[in-house]
Structures are given as structure tokens and as C-alpha cells.
Write a structure and sequence with these properties.
Elements lengths: L15 H6 L10 E8 L5 E3 L7 E4 L3 H10 L4 E7 L16 H12 L4 E6 L13 E2 L2 E2 L1 H17 L4 E4 L6 H11 L8 E6 L6 H7 L19 H13 L3 E5 L5 H10 L4 E5 L1 H12 L5 H15 L3 E4 L2 H9 L7
Parallel strand pairs: 1-3, 1-4, 1-12, 4-5, 5-8, 9-10, 10-11, 11-12
Antiparallel strand pairs: 2-3, 6-7
Helix pairs in contact: 2-3, 4-5, 8-10
Length: 331
Amino acid sequence: MSYFPRLRLRRLRSARVLRSLVRETELNTRDLVYPLFVEESSGRIREIESMPGIFRYSLDRLSEEIDDVSSLGIPAVILFGIPEQKDEVGSGAYDPNGVVQSAIPRIKERHPDLLVITDVCLCEYTSHGHCGLVVDGTIDNDRTLELLAKTAVSHVQAGADMVAPSDMMDGRVAATRQALDAAGYHNIPILAYSAKFASAFYGPFREAAESVPQFGDRRSYQMDPANSREALREIEQDIAEGADIVMVKPALAYLDVIRQARDSFSIPIAAYNVSGEYALVKAAAQHGWVDEKQVVLEILTAVKRAGADIIITYHAKEVARWLATGQNEER
């Protein structure tokens, strides 16, 4: 006589309502942050060739996109600026009249409840494309900190709700926190790009932000993709320096790091579903090789299941529409 186990796990998969009741991870629009590229120009909306559906907006054309984001219930955006002029010291990053500093009040005046996060880095603003000052052919960590902190303060003075240092210089969270506090911005949170890996998945972003390094690469400051223990050390250090939220970037190839961070720390965790991840799905979908909606929802659900509380993703608007119509119920 053969004995079948009393427990049949398929019982709870037998109907849609049951599957919904026992679902362990729910993806919500309120989990999402939408990246926005704004350029120092006028009258322009330009699609980014390697990121179908994603555009660069001039300051005077930004309102249409912000209205759309807000109407979909997406709670936050993260801003990336592309200046008209670049120089060796990235002066456009901390210019009080710079592109990001000009975009923030336009957004807040139109949608004051939309959370505006700003990326704090020099790479979009330097002529050499690196995230810090170049001295004798190398990135000078400590001299860069003052400029990053200055950039963060200028963003908050313009109305930013949160700043996100992404440069991976040692000590930049502490420098930013000190500068914000000294300027009286004690309540402005810091979202730290804590475990930011030197990834091949950033290619389309660098086209969008015009931030390709003009020499060398960023491996002396971004993390080795082979290292997860080091990622936890980076996160621990940023928390000690005053980070309110930490980030793992990229997301999909680093789900294990997100999970290790979730198991190790109680702080909120963000994950960046980066440009290359977006572009791969878009390209495959355009060829009819994958079901775009199902693949995107599966990827982002996996990111949340791994432990992310916040997901920065270029898919945010599409996902918000799918979730609003209940199209995530069956996967």
C-alpha cells in the first residue's frame, strides 16, 4: 500500500481567491520611486534610445510628466540633472540656479505632496564623467566630500525632501549629515547608495545622463560585484554615519545582498531596478520574446520578496497602471 502525505500544498493554489489570501508578498504602488531626467534646456522632450519609454525633459516641459506621475499615485520621484555646461569640478551640481535646483520648486509648486528625492553626485556635471574630483589622475575622496555636501544643501534649500548621495566616496554620509545639520536641516533624511556595485547594468543610464567616464572606470570607488560581505560593511558604516535609508544597486543581480541586508539591519532598504535591467526587458518584449507585464511584475515582486521596502524603477508608471486595474492578481 502506498501512502500519500496528508499535506497537499496544492490545496492552497487551487483557486484565485485562495492564492490571493495566502500570498506572502504584495507589490504596491506606494513602494515605488520613479527616476526623472531633467535637462538644462527649453522646449524639449527627448526619448532615451536605449530606454524606450523614458525621456529627458527640459525644465519647461517637466510639468506634464509630473502630473502623470502624481495622478498614478506614485509617491516619490528621484531627480537626475543634465547641465548645459560641464567642468572639472562639477560646479553645476551645487549651483543654486542649477538644473536640479530649478526643477525642484517647479515640482513642489505643482504637486507639494509628491516626495522629491535628489541624486547627489558629481558625475553628470564633471567634464571627465567621474563622481569626484580628479587630482593627478585619481579620484580624491576627501576633497570631493565638501562639494557633495554643498550639493546636498543646495538641493534642500531649493525644496528637496530627501537627498541621496550616490558617489560611493568614503565618509560622504557623515559629511552630508553634518552639512545639513549645520544649515538647520535636521529633519531632512538621507537615502544612501550604500551598496552600489561597479555594474555593467548602468550603460543606458550613462547615455541618459551623459556621464560616461572619459578615462578609466569607477571600480576604485564602486563595489566589486563579487563581494557581499563588504556590502554589509558599507551599509553598516552608512548607518553609523547617519543614513536614514540604505540602498542596494543594482537590484536583480543582487537579490542575495538585499536579503542579507534585510536579515542584518532593521533600517528601511531601497533597491534600484537600474537602467540595464529595464532595457533588457524592454528589448525582449519588443521582440515578442517575453510577456513584459508578467516579467516586470515578477522581477519587482522578487525584489520586494528579497527584503526591499522601496523600489526605484523606470517601470513605475506602467506598474502603477497595472496595479490600479488589478492586473497583478494572477501571475
